[in-house]
Amino acid sequence: MSLDRQVKNEVYIKNLFRRYYQENRVEPPYSMEKREFGFMFFGAQTMMRHLSFSEPESLQKFLASRVPSNAFYSAAYYTRPDAARMDEKVWEGCDLIFDIDADHLETPCKAVHDKWICQHCGQSGAGEKPEKCPLCGEQSIEERTWLCEVCLEAAKNELIKLIEDFLMADFGIGTDELRVVFSGHRGYHVHVTTKALLDLDQNARREIVDYIKGVGLEPRYHGLIEAREGRSKILKGPRTDEDGWRGRLARGVIKTVLLMDERNIPQERKMRNALRGLLRDKDRVADSLRAGVWDPVRGIGIDIWEYIAKLAVEKVGGRIDEPVTADVRRLIRLPTSLHGKTGFKVCPIQLGELSSFDPFKHALVFKGEVTVHVDESPKFRVGEEEFGPFKDEDVELPLSAAVLLLCKGVAYLK
After folding, report:
1. Residues 194/198/202/206 CA torsion (nearest 10 deg)
2. Tens-digit pLDDT profile for residues 232-248
3. pTM of this prediction?
4. Which residues are the active-site residues?
5. In which region does residue 13 sit, left (phi positive, over 0), alpha (psi from -120 to 50) or beta (all else)?
6. Three-state SS for 245?
7. Which of 25, 178, 367, 402 is most buried, taking the most CB atoms under 10 A from its CB?
8. Interval 68-87: pLDDT, tens
């Protein structure tokens, strides 16, 4: 896209964002006077940060007058949030933040709607970008990601698992201490505001991440053992109805067995033969595990079950972005602000409404229609309508759909 068209797009989107901030009150964070704020602006590559606002009106005035493309605030609380140096801010505590992003989830749709382009020779392809261009060998490759219902549904499923299976069930966090926010793009944020966790340092927060992801989990410490009964050795394992990782591991092993096929079998001969024997009757094996019997197949020893258990941990563990949770000085997106890559609202979500939340409906803010020229875009839905795929054509679209394409840089104003 030419620089002239890019600037024209940015001016148009900025005016729409300005109108939104003039007409809609942005929800300030709790204890906003102790938070650092940061902003990205249209046409700029760097962030303006180390700002603070003492009351909602001053924040609203800033948003309406300066019109950032993206707005952030600190998960941390500071005595002097506007100090230019981090060591001068005086850290007082930090909310526990979790980020679930479709970028980190394996979904088949990415091979269809994500794209990469070599900035050196123009070679392009679909799916995840390579380390270097297969044509010219250069590493300057731009990745163009998209968001679709499959991506965001996968992210929502991970979000629900995080909240219900870990934060509430294992950590005992109450619903009044949880806040869920759609990021405005490809994922969700969870804010845990309980005071008992505010002063956790980075190491403690990494331990929480490791627990949720199952990092370093040893099945033998969760009930998977060989025990002697008289002269015989028997295999014992956790039950599916147990709390915490014991029950989660048992349920995950059953799920792994039912989904396992030749692709999951290692090349080592002994293990390969044993797993093939297990897979020949995996429905009966799963029923046996549900009943708490861990030796349903002769020749399947504890080493085989430990291998399956490690595969299971990858399936049932939480998929969260570690740096976001561990960083006690992290800036997070400001709820009810707008996302500069989509034009969607960063949406707070009530826990009771999470299952019915539809980002392609509930995060839209712009009304009207406009004609744009679309260079190329995959099929997508906005509201109740589906659009595309488009390639090098003029189309009249609802404003929210057009803004999505403009923000993604795949269309320009006629």
Report:
1. -10
2. 778 889 999 999 999 99
3. 0.92
4. 99, 101, 321
5. alpha
6. helix
7. 402
8. 999 999 999 999 999 999 99
